[in-house]
Amino acid sequence: MTAIAENKPAYDGQALDLTGKSGARAFKNTLATVLIVLAFVIAMIPLLWILGTVISKGYHLLLSADWWSQSQRGITVRREGGGAYHAIMGTLIMSLITALIAVPIAVLGAVYLVEYGKGTRAARVVSFMIDILTGVPSIVAALFIYAVWITIFGFNRVGFAVSLSLVLLMLPVVLRSTEEMLKLVPDELREASYALGVPKWKTIMKVVVPTAFGGIVTGVMLGLARVMGETAPLLILVGYSKNINLNPFNGFMGALPTMINQDRTELALQPAADRVWAAALTLILLVLVLNVLARLVARFSAIKSK
Amino acid sequence: MSSPDGTAPPDRPDGTAAGQEEPKIEDLVHEDAGPTPRFEDLAEEHAEHEAELSAEVMTESGPEPAAADPAVAATGTAVATEPGKKMELGPVGHLGDRLFSAFARGSGGLVVLIVAFVGIFLLALAIPALADDKSSFLFSRIWEPGGDQPRFGIAAMFYTTVVSSIIAMLIAVPVAIGVALFITYYAPKRLAQPVAYAVDLLAAVPSIIYGLWGILFFAPILLPVINGLSDALGWIPLFEKPPGDNVGVVFTASVVLAIMILPVVTAISREIFAQTPIAHREGALALGATKWEMIRMSVLPYGRSGVVSASMLGLGRALGETVAVLIILSVPNGNDPWNSSIFAGGETFASKIANNAAEFDSPEKTGAYIAAGLVLFVVTFLVNSAARIIVDRSGPGGRRPRRKRGAGVAQGASS
Amino acid sequence: MSVNRLLRVGSVAVASLGVLALSACGSDPTPSGSSSPGSSTSSAGADCPQGTLNAEGSSAQKNAIDEVISKYNEKCADVTVNYNPTGSGAGIKQFNANQVDFAGSDSALKPDEMTAATKRCGGNPAIDLPMVIGPIAIAINVDGVDKFVLDGPTAAKIFQGTIKTWNDPAIAKLNPGVTFPSAPISVFFRSDESGTTENFTKYLKAAGGGAWTGEPAKKWTGTGAGKEKSAGVAEGVKSTKNSITYVEWSYAVDNKLTTAQIDTGSGTPVELSAESAGKALAAAKPAGTGSDLALKLDYATKAPGAYPIILATYEIACTKGLPAEKTALVKSFLSYFVSKDGQASLTDLNYAPLPAEIQTKVDAAIQAIS
């Protein structure tokens, strides 16, 4: 973010004026510009289309206060009314628990890879394991937690079990992106800090991590966005409830993806279809709000690193 | 933190550390460093002051602890990791340092443990089922697990999974890099930020919605494209179109997967491109490079490793995506001959497992599906390793951050 | 420690406050009693316990049980009933793993499942209670065809793949005066294992005159392209010209698909309706003896006006062995489900109500649960 601001387009003009460019180079430059703008346009079409679909079909339910304050208790697919309160709370509770577990492990793991274990065999093993973890489909992660939580320990299906399986999905995303961001912190900063006698851990905490903070936040948000939209672990590990349940350690729990999943089979019915798109829009808005909060945090810590 | 006595901290790493050797060595290090606790205390106090009042740093920092500690650090970590290859610059040996290092190592170890557990669990479930398999697991395309004569093979699933992911990557990665470059270096500042937010938002669209949108709204638009491609290239088996106007085909799923992974790849690439040191960029421009040459020479090489990591995360999602693929793809029946065309239906590993998870009624049947999940593990790992090897081999000298750090370490070693 | 940390802590605090604020104002929607015709005044075993009842299983009865839960809550507001339509197999699995209080299933318990269920019920047998009858429609999408007749053998041949085009003489013979295109028939089937497929293939086997070669099973063995769940096949037919599928009646109605009339050999082709499905059900016999209420349906029935392709779904519960408060909940809910009020609400959703005779038996079995 800050780096985008640093990018001063004024330099381009000077560079162009200074050299007598050959036609081929100028052509390549133009071609690249065209292709990059084209890529942008190509990407924007489906992205805006999806967002447009979700917003236009879902926004009207979000305007009512009931949507934010009521559950779906007693509302069948043929009836209008009710809200997504139970699902919003379920999604928030489960994903916040997930983040509380996954983010510290992921950030510390990335710190280990970049700052402590670099080049060692142990680090290579860790890196290898993360690569494998990126390839675990959500359904396999869910089956694994099911085997541990229910078959071995004999617990009941609860929201917390979902969080555990989501940790498996969130870890590699946050860890990999954090690792890449930490790698990009210039060594000069570390060296300067060491030279001043600052211990290594403080260097990491006060110099390295804050410098990479914006990127780390992006990674965390990507990870959160991914796990908040997951359906399979919710189906296998908690079960959907139309009723309000705020306890992640007891009972079925609503969540936005499972709410969508319940109603998506009835898209031919207008009340159900409305709720599908509205729940999707709500999920996107939740991530947006978390995103904005996280970026505020990132901005404050960015001031500090200056 | 407040009590820097020597006995407590070495026990802690023992409890949490992943590696078996490190704690011991740290004990040794600590004993070696026996006479210096005073310096350490001083250094830590100084450091705290410094971190908070960075303006006063220059005047306050004591030269002695800074000088004494690197020696300890150097011997300590050199033994702990690989002798001679690496040398730490910072003063190591504080309580805080040991704790922090233990936490970091512990997290690394935890990741290994988790994956090992998942792997062991999958293997334990898969092996008995595989032992009962009456047909070739790798080369058969029949899928009839469970029962007295279980016969199942992954050939068809493997093909669909890999082909759909390859097509998705071919579409998504170039576009994502283009978008990331556009946001960081081409877009007017006023446009860049909203676009970046919009792309991030799309990562938040749940995969069910991608699936529904894909089959309800996008697939009908894609039908003319499918017909056009098959008319032009139908003589290649890959593009041969079976009769009927089925839109739930591998090609549709691939395009939707590409759209799904686009935000992930774009977001990470964008952050990385934005981090290119301004000196590199200015240097290139000052030498008279065009904007594209500047990007090619300074931005892309600098971000190479990161873009590959981002792409691998995207690939992981494409390979493992369940619900969206499940909604879009139509499944061929068991009687028709196998069709390798991307304009035919199919099943990926994840969609097959998800579609049948509700009816796992025996351990043998579950095992068969878990074995399929295991193959997905292996595929992901192979692709990841291949990508990393390519990146490591083909990096043009000196620009990648890893090499840069290497240089820094070498400097430290010589001092 | 520093200003920044304060800010960071501050924003986290603000976020959690927001969550708390949201959590303070959540509530259940107030039941709209006026919208339900015939508001229950009868006393169908209506002592209302308190608590939560969790169930899981067949997706074929999802809409039925949702409706019944909603109606039941108008009477017993303090009971929370959750039903997860993940599939019959999953329902039985979760029931046997002690994760849910009763299961919904498209087929009665098999012997080995019964063994596991008995163990779960503390050594007492579990019981199959037929509760929801869902007719299966054969739905088509062919331009210009809004009345369509099929008989068993022709249907079997189409779904087997031996009849490949719409203008086949066998189809034309059953539909005099209707012109069919020469286009190939696109068949859609359920790609997930389902009770709907099992019951439909039972029909094809029984009425197909040998044209259906596979054994009836949850997994499809015929021709065509697979789609996920009832919604998938219905959507597939809706969006693809010249296509055909088998799907629960309600999906065919909701998606406004043309459904086939079945020529059972009784003289006139039978149109699908609650009445014609009910007639077929009247011909059904209890499959087991004693308290086992599993039904044996006669798919080859030639009874006049009986629509032969129907699906009976069961609730599976413990006869004994649940904790007392769960027993009260299960009894209270299930006896409402089987009552006249409960069954009457299903007709609007395109299910067929249980015949009175079976209703009485099921109710007796529920009252015997202790």
From TrEMBL, chain A:
Gene3D superfamilies: MetI-like. GO terms for molecular function: phosphate transmembrane transporter activity. It is a multi-pass membrane protein. Residues 88-294 form the ABC transmembrane type-1 domain. It is found in: Cell membrane. The keyword Cell membrane applies. Signal peptide: none annotated. Keywords: Cell membrane, Membrane, Phosphate transport, Transmembrane, Transmembrane helix, Transport. SUPFAM superfamilies: MetI-like. The keyword Transport applies. Pfam families: BPD_transp_1. GO terms for biological process: phosphate ion transmembrane transport. The chain crosses the membrane at residues 31-52, 87-114, 126-152, 158-175, 207-228, 276-298. Belongs to the binding-protein-dependent transport system permease family. CysTW subfamily. Part of the binding-protein-dependent transport system for phosphate; probably responsible for the translocation of the substrate across the membrane. This is Phosphate transport system permease protein PstA. The lineage of its organism: Bacteria, Bacillati, Actinomycetota, Actinomycetes, Propionibacteriales.
From TrEMBL, chain B:
It is found in: Cell membrane. One of its GO terms (cellular component) is plasma membrane. PROSITE patterns: ABC_TM1. GO terms for molecular function: phosphate transmembrane transporter activity. GO terms for biological process: phosphate ion transport. This is Phosphate transport system permease protein. It comes from Kribbella pratensis. Residues 158-387 form the ABC transmembrane type-1 domain. The chain crosses the membrane at residues 108-131, 151-183, 195-226, 246-268, 306-331, 368-391. Keywords: Cell membrane, Membrane, Phosphate transport, Transmembrane, Transmembrane helix, Transport. Residues 1-70, 394-415 are annotated as: Disordered. Belongs to the binding-protein-dependent transport system permease family. CysTW subfamily. Pfam families: BPD_transp_1 (PF00528). It is a multi-pass membrane protein.
Automatic annotation (TrEMBL), chain C:
Residues 43-340 form the PBP domain. Belongs to the PstS family. It comes from Kribbella pratensis. Phosphate binds at residues 58-60, 88, 106, 194-196. Residues 26-59 are annotated as: Disordered. It comes from the Bacteria. Transmembrane segments: none annotated. PANTHER family: PHOSPHATE-BINDING PROTEIN PSTS. Gene3D superfamilies: Periplasmic binding protein-like II. Pfam families: PBP_like_2 (PF12849). The keyword Phosphoprotein does not apply. One of its GO terms (molecular function) is phosphate ion binding. This is Phosphate-binding protein. One of its GO terms (biological process) is phosphate ion transmembrane transport. InterPro entries: ABC_phos-bd_PstS, PBP_domain, Phosphate-bind_PstS. Keywords: Phosphate transport, Signal, Transport. GO terms for cellular component: ATP-binding cassette (ABC) transporter complex.
